[in-house]
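Weekly sync notes, structure subgroup
Attendees: PM, AL, DS (notes)

Item 1: joint prediction request from the bench team. They want all two components modeled as one assembly rather than separately. Inputs as received:
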Amino acid sequence: MYSPHLKPKVRGHMPVMLPLRLRADSLPLADRLFNLWTLTALVLALAVVLIGPAFAQLATPDERTTLTILLEWTPTLAKGFGFNVLISVLSMLIGTVMGVFLGVLQVSQTRPIRQAAWLVTQFFRNSPWLVLLFYCILLIPFQFEIFGVNIPFPGWIKAVIGLSLPVMAYTSEFMRGAILSIPTGQWESAESLGFSRRMTLTNIILPQTVKRVLPSWMNLYAVLTMATPLVSIIGVDDVMALTRAALSAEGRADLLIPMYLYILSWFFLYCYPISSLTRVLERKYSVKL
Amino acid sequence: MDFANTFIDWLRPDWFLNLAVVSDDYNRGRYVAGLWMTIKLSVVSIFLSLIVGVLGAAVQGAPSRTLRVAVGIFVAFFRNTPPLVQLYFFYFAIGTVLRITGDNGLPQPLISNFGWAIISLSLFAGALNVEIFRAGVEAVPRSTVEAAEALGYTRLQIYTDIVLPLAVRVSLPALGTNLVNLVKTTTLAYAIAVPELLYVSAQIWSEDLNVREMMNVLLVSYVGLVAILVWVLHRWEKALRIPGYGE
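Output from the run, pasted for the record:
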């Protein structure tokens, strides 16, 4: 698309080299008055008028400022956020191990295995995360009895399993794509060197897929981290549950917006570097034509 | 229906199958209402998110630097924060503040939970759509745009008549993934008590104590919904295909 703001960085570039453009007439007064900026200002003013009285009404004699309250709650929320990170790392670990396995099964030479792996992948990829979480929370027993010993199975471990299922499916799909994208010459030359299929996979094909899978895998991790607040719905005390508890403990309506924005920015600060790095890697590893 | 009922009654003692959704009229009504709500949520959010995406992508090609940065911030923010927290932010934080005085003199929410669910889902999916459409717009060859300029098209005409039709075709596969994701994300509306599929299913299984069966019904329903969407998108992709372009 033509974009006049992007000046080509060419030596000897002169305005005369640009395509001929007729200078537009200056905008009529109506357009100059009613443009996007005035619209934004109007909307903002309207919002202030609408929201302002609500704030005035809800204000309590509480002396502490919003910032103090946020700082007071920060250690608690940090603990909750750490729990979210723990859940995401564990789910990613379990999901990736299962997903790589399932992905390899998807390119199996036996037709039924291939089809079964495909079906499992598609099923878990297309069902909502929240439903899978409910599935695991409600249908996995809360403790197992093995050799007479009761092993407790708390909610958060079930949540980890529930979150690892979609991760497994996505990883499986990434692996299948990556394995299929390796040139067939690699398989053939490995065969001619006397590698068995298993050795070819583990020693030649899989190491090469790492580079191709890495960007999407990292993106998946960011998506998974952003899905971890879901566990608060099914009763795990993560950062979201703690935030809501903090809000009800304070009971101040003017705290709602700052508090939620605060949590949003925590997630943003954690996920944004990951997705930026993903983009860098994508560009670095992209196939140059 | 009579035959089906006998069939289900026959199934129950042997398999402990408690398919209340099929056997019980009341529960079936609730289930269908929930399904309809999920479909409404999905369709409206898909439509609005597409509008957000097209507008955002158009603005990202605009000459004004401020506008481009603003859209960039919007996209970065909505892509890198959890959709559930966004929904809570809209419903509990902004929704609490945004109240009007109702007929009975008590403050009432200006926008219902259904409305907030749609707004939140559309913005979340729309932010991704902006990225997807922008990638599509960038894939349109510059020579095509220059040819249109040479023919005297205005900027708007170039965007709507030349760039967008080609960009849509390029971005359809990525768009499909995102829209499927959006349908899956409608389950979040459960958290703010919108009576959609997951919500009514939870009601049914807590009354009838048939968690296992309802769970399976629920999973099959969602996989079915997604399958329909994938089929529609596939048909659309086929219908839009220009021989010799793409592939």
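Discussion: The domain at 64-141+151-285 of chain A is CATH 1.10.3720.10 (MetI-like fold).
Action: AL to compare against the crosslinking data before next sync.
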